[in-house]
Amino acid sequence: MANALDPSWHEVLKDEFGKNYMIQLKQFLLDEKAAGQVVYPKNSDIFNAFNNTSFDDVKVVILGQDPYHGAHQAHGLSFSVQKGIAVPRSLSNIYKELKTDIPGFQIPAHGNLEEWAKQGVLLLNATLTVRASSPGSHQKKGWEEFTDEVIKTISDKKEGIVFILWGAFAQSKAVLIDEKKHFIIKSAHPSPFSADRGFFGSRPFSKTNEILKKEGKPEINWQIAP
Which are the contacts of 15, defined by CB distance < 8 A and separation ≥ 6? Predict the structure, then answer.
């Protein structure tokens, strides 16, 4: 698994791959495969968040929980789906907020967010795999220990990072972040069950760019090409 990681991330996370929780996680994934379970995303996409955004380039972190569990949806970036796949409702709400938050934003016809990742937005799920049609099935198997370490490593080794935490689960990770060094933007989750209770109107994207500008960093171009 370590070999699948971008070298900049491998340098700061290499010790994790020899720990007991990671050994047990590897075995769990092997057991899933041996049992004939379909697991998303495909193996080559599991670490896509890291391979699209190097450690050195991280400016923003958007934290999700699980990968999408439908066929061909998940590709290793939180909230993102591959082109040709229907835009999920949470992402549709993210686009609606962008349209009111960022002047001139045009809602794209697809849900692939790789353009954000290439600009330094780490689209990180707390759990990096899931069994097909079974949300939460790979929670508490070791992934959370790994991604908690990712968050702590970013907090410890970098400065001025914007963490966007939507919903109670993501906000529970705030304890891992040094707020004296970094910036946290919190709101309700963009899910259709909660978007009307504080996500819409929260303006996380313009707030992020305001922070980056003050920090002397390039702002994120949130517009996604058609």
Answer: none
